[in-house]
Design brief:
The chain has helices at 2-75, 84-99, 102-116, 130-141. It is elongated. Helix 1 (2-75) runs antiparallel to helix 2 (84-99). It has one domain (2-116). The chain has 149 residues and is mainly α. InterPro entries: Plg-R(KT). Keywords: Receptor. This is Plasminogen receptor (KT).
């Protein structure tokens, strides 16, 4: 009788462990999906910001170019056109950021760094551990928990 009781307890324990493993896996998958959706939303906001910024800077660039060109023709000073060159580079960068391939080139470069320069990604003092977080928490709170007594 004791054997059959321990056998059913073992079976229930195994089922419970499998259930807990399934639940933790499901929770992890949900966390990964949520973090990915948040990343996608942040990236979309950055691209939208670049596009909106481009509209304002493009308008400024057009007005400045017209004004500088008119001033250079009227005063017969071609040196007044000089600011158009750096402003043109800024406009080109913003266009590339908003509608071009800048994002894809940055992604490719990030993948190259992760593949071939892994040591550059190391955090100072390594990755945080439970012990280091608890030590910082205890130092900040100044309270001794009941577990430490």
């Amino acid at each position: 009788m004791g054997f059959s009781l321990s056998k059913s307890v073992d079976a229930n324990l195994t089922k419970q462990q499998e259930f807990m493993l399934h639940n933790s896996r499901l929770q992890l998958e949900r966390q990964i999906l949520m973090q990915n959706q948040m990343r996608e939303r942040q990236t979309a906001m950055q691209i939208a910001w670049s596009r909106e910024s481009l509209k304002y800077f493009g308008s400024f660039f057009a007005m400045a170019t017209l004004g500088l060109t008119a001033g250079a023709i009227k005063r017969k000073k071609p040196g007044l056109l000089a600011p158009i060159i750096p402003l043109g580079f800024i406009l080109a960068y913003q266009m590339d950021s908003a509608y071009g391939t800048l994002f894809y080139r940055m992604k490719e470069e990030a993948e190259n760094i992760m593949a071939s320069e892994q040591d550059r990604l190391d955090l100072p003092h390594g990755a945080p551990t439970f012990d280091s977080i608890e030590k910082a928490r205890r130092a900040k709170s100044g309270l001794v928990s009941f577990l430490e007594k």
